[in-house]
Design brief:
The chain is an alpha+beta fold. The chain has six helices and 17 strands. Strands 7, 8, 9, 10, 11, 14, 15, 16 and 17 form a nine-stranded mixed sheet that branches. A four-stranded antiparallel sheet has the order 1-6-3-4.
């Protein structure tokens, strides 16, 4: 793959530039190519930290991963809104957003491919068509998917700029005394368990979450968690950092205290965005989840 850097591009790290220029490839995927010697700038082998300049010639030797095909499946969706450009769904608990190794069926993508008749953005590749952002398997709530590349790119720009409104209900362990708590703590990979995230200064990104108390119970606190940034597992990590982990969170919480719960009590109840085609602000809200009500009624 050959890319000529445009005159309008400011000097920056080549791995950062490529992750934005080729959004279908993750930064970790690009980093592996670079680490394996597959990146050349103006004919010379380059590192991830190499700065690019306007008119530089970038050559990237990519071995496309064998993604195969993804099956369309007639799976019921809770559709909040839909038009020719995007679809907003209320994702169910236990549903994975897109296929991965060993899990090729019963994902949101399988359902979207069937419902949208294959009309989804191709930027995410075969595995992630239309997927602009994700929710964890056991996190419920509102998620938007793009039906075309134009919409995908415009939405991705809003997510990158942190201009998307994203608010969650979260039931936390313990009683929070303050009315609001703003957590500003960088998040990166856990140094011991690479499948987990952690508050750390090493290879981390800035992360900011505002927790607002909605109601206190004898042993729990219901909060509104508003994302100022969007890092992997951000709310769950920041809640655990406060020593008030999300109820039912088997990764960052108290595994022995919530044996009956299938997953964390975290729900993305509000999503606000500028519609890519009309430039009008739109806001989508879902009701308070029944599984929250069930737990609260039995445990307070």
């Amino acid at each position: 793959m050959k890319i000529i850097v445009a005159d309008s591009v400011s000097p920056q790290r080549v791995d950062v530039y490529l992750s934005e220029r080729i959004p279908k490839y993750s930064r970790s995927f690009l980093r592996k190519i670079i680490d394996d010697g597959g990146l050349f700038i103006n004919g010379k082998q380059a590192k991830a930290s190499t700065k690019i300049m306007p008119q530089d010639e970038i050559v990237l030797f990519v071995n496309e991963p064998d993604e195969g095909t993804v099956e369309q499946q007639n799976i019921a969706l809770d559709i909040v809104y839909e038009d020719d450009d995007l679809i907003v769904v209320n994702k169910a608990q236990g549903m994975v957003v897109h296929p991965a190794a060993g899990n090729r069926q019963n994902t949101l993508v399988n359902a979207l491919l069937y419902h949208c008749k294959g009309s989804l953005s191709g930027i995410g590749g075969v595995i992630r068509p239309g997927i602009v952002h994700r929710l964890d398997k056991d996190t419920t709530g509102i998620l938007v998917a793009a039906k075309n590349d134009f919409t995908h790119q415009k939405l991705a720009q809003q997510f990158k700029a942190h201009s998307i409104v994203r608010q969650y209900y979260a039931l936390l362990h313990g009683v929070i005394a303050e009315e609001q708590v703003l957590v500003k703590a960088p998040i990166g990979r856990d140094g011991v368990n690479r499948k987990k995230m952690a508050v750390t200064e090493k290879n981390a990104k800035d992360a900011e979450t505002l927790f607002t108390v909605l109601k206190r119970y004898p042993n729990h606190t219901l909060v509104d968690a508003t994302l100022k940034t969007g890092r992997t597992h951000q709310i769950r990590v920041h809640a655990a950092y406060l020593s008030h982990p999300v109820v039912g969170d088997k990764t960052y919480g108290y595994q022995k205290k919530d044996p009956a719960l299938a997953g964390q009590l975290l729900h993305a109840y509000k999503l606000g965005l500028i519609h890519p085609r009309t430039d009008q602000y739109m806001e989508f809200v879902t009701p308070f989840p029944p599984r929250f009500e069930d737990f609260i009624s039995k445990n307070t």
